[in-house]
Automatic annotation (TrEMBL):
GO biological process, alphabetically ordered: DNA integration; DNA recombination
Name under which the protein is recorded: Tyr recombinase domain-containing protein
Domain of life, source organism: Eukaryota
Cross-referenced InterPro entries: Integrase-like_cat_sf
Native organism taxonomy: Eukaryota, Discoba, Euglenozoa, Kinetoplastea, Metakinetoplastina
Native source species: Strigomonas culicis
Region (Disordered): 83-104
Listed GO MF terms: DNA binding
Length: 104
């Protein structure tokens, strides 16, 4: 299969990306003067983390390769260690299995 673009190549030019960022930034500031792209990015990452996305999923979504970088967006309350992932999953499964079945 032929690729349209090379692996790792930019999807948009720097000029296109810059123009899109400026447009979105202007819209955000027209809604609320304190809003900015970094705050929207951080909010989206934290929202996805609260929904239960794993660090691996969050890194894939954001393009981060290091947990340390991602942790800067998550803040102390949402950071999880690799060691905590399996116990959290086990506890979630236990809670689901012990919950009454309301579909019957």
């Amino acid at each position: 299969m032929n690729r349209i673009r090379k692996k790792g190549a930019r999807l948009f030019t720097k000029e296109d990306s810059s123009m899109a960022r400026k447009m979105v930034s202007n819209v955000l500031r027209s809604i609320d003067r304190t809003m900015a792209l970094p705050s929207v990015r951080k909010g989206a990452i934290r929202y996805c983390a609260k929904l239960g996305m794993t660090k691996e999923e969050l890194r894939r979504m954001t393009g981060h390769t290091q947990d340390r970088t991602l942790d800067g967006y998550l803040g102390p309350g949402l950071r999880t260690t690799t060691a905590a992932v399996q116990p959290q999953a086990d506890e979630g499964e236990r809670l689901l299995l012990s919950a009454p079945n309301t579909l019957e």
